[in-house]
Amino acid sequence: MTHDDDVFRDECGVFGAWGCKEAAQICYLGLYSLQHRGQESAGIVTADASNFYVVKDMGLVSEIFNPDNLSHLKGQSGVGHVRYSTTGASMLNNVQPLYTKTSKGKIAVAHNGNLTNAYTIYNQLKSDGALFQTTVDTEVLLHLISRSKLTKPLDVFQEVLAQVEGAFSLVLLGEKYLVAARDTYGFRPLVLGRLGEGYVVASETCAFDLIGATYIREIEPGEIILIDKTGISSTKILKQTRNAFCVFEHVYFARPDSHVFGETVHLVRKAFGRALAAEYPVDADLVMAIPDSGNSAALGYAEQSGIPFEIGMTRNHYVGRTFIQPTQKIRDFAVKVKLNPIRSVLEGKRVIVVDDSLVRGTTSKQRVAAIRQAGAKEVHLRISSPPITHPCHFGIDTPKREKLIAAQKTVDEILKYVGADSIGYLSKTLMLNAVTAYGPGDFCTGCFDGKYPLKVKDKGKYSLGTRKIKLYAEKNRY
């Protein structure tokens, strides 16, 4: 795969099924729908009355799973995970779901988020003699579960999850139950659905659409639900915190057809675009998006401004590994292999280009140049989120602050760098006002203003971090 270092990388996606015939196939389809949340690795663990079954590897869902290994995954319950690493090295040992035998029986866990005090807990556990098999923060949960003196599953998870800090939306498969839980801030989405006589849990509702499941509700911030043969039980993590939903789920991460934090993502992004047009109008001949994440906001901008929307750039959806090394003769290879301007649409036109965010700025610079090379007379860049000035510590892989262009340059300096005729960022106030299901104070905007909803211990770091581990990770790429 190719990775674009000029975007926030997706975090992870989780899926769980309980009491579902062909649970492995259901988990596979669920993960297929959540592939946008992580393209580095994937895994499924299922269970029947006596055993757990595991298939996981590096790569895309479609590359890892096939009829042969799916038939190995027996049982009517399972959990699945797609990953882009935010903590821990990129290696096979770190592929989730993590599975182990504990004092509470066999357990498999899939986690989306980042436990910001995991390194502190890791050191405490290690000093007590714990042995770790991975370098991901999720493993501390398994150790804490195994060490709990409590016996009832809901009591165990209530105790364990009160000890960790940061972001987690997780699904956990036990021998006789499925657990789904969300941190008290609600950073990452997690939803509950019904499929026949069984239940499903997923990071986003788009996973339910593919398998024909009925959406029931969001799992609430701080809620732990347990599903077993008697039905659903629920309790709360005993912490008092405010809501801090990640607004970047609406800006970029979630699929536009998903229902996240009480609203349809596509409609929220259109509202961002309308607000952006009101805040930064400009005379132009057409509005175009940087596909695909800019599409909805560009439609909103066009509706508000009355300027026609056009497809000015086409995306190659089949970009993968390439065996050639581009030379100077193949200019802007990394951009052109993925996105290509349509000259007949852009030539001689004043163009408004709408993108969801601007991280390092290098890709935006190349795209503006490519649009000019296609004959555009003017290029006006509009960003449907505020300037990104700080990294995320809650489950998104972001560059360090010194690599974020808005943390190092003024808006005028950014304009000069990217080479556009004008630039406009959606203000934080108008962005938050465009999200109507919750109030402005219910969202985390730390990446825009550095005001994090909790104090971050260890800066969210949890990895052995030695050169030996990094080299091992490189050797185990698939």
What's the helix and strand layout?
Elements: E1 12-18, H1 23-33, E2 41-47, E3 52-58, H2 61-64, H3 67-72, E4 77-83, E5 98-102, E6 105-115, H4 118-127, H5 139-147, H6 153-161, E7 166-173, E8 178-182, E9 191-195, E10 198-202, H7 206-211, E11 214-218, E12 223-228, E13 231-236, E14 245-246, H8 248-253, E15 259-260, E16 263-264, H9 265-279, E17 286-289, H10 295-305, E18 313-315, H11 333-336, E19 339-341, H12 343-346, E20 350-355, H13 362-373, E21 378-383, H14 405-408, H15 411-418, E22 422-425, H16 428-433, E23 443-444, H17 446-449, H18 467-475
Parallel strand pairs: 14-23, 17-20, 20-21, 21-22
Antiparallel strand pairs: 1-4, 1-10, 2-3, 2-4, 5-6, 6-7, 7-8, 8-12, 9-10, 9-11, 12-13, 15-16, 18-19
Structure report:
- It is a single chain.
- The protein has 478 residues and is of the alpha+beta class.
- It has 2 domains: 12-241, 4-Layer Sandwich (Glutamine Phosphoribosylpyrophosphate, subunit 1, domain 1); 267-315 and 325-437, Rossmann fold.
- It is built from 18 helices and 23 strands.
- The strands form 6 sheets. A 7-stranded antiparallel beta sheet has the order 3-2-4-1-10-9-11. A 6-stranded antiparallel beta sheet has the order 5-6-7-8-12-13.
- β7 and β8 (178-182) form a beta hairpin.
- α9 (265-279) crosses α10 (295-305).
- The longest helix has 15 residues, at 265-279.
- The radius of gyration is 23 Å and the shape is globular.
- The model is unreliable at 321-326 and 460-478 (pLDDT under 50).
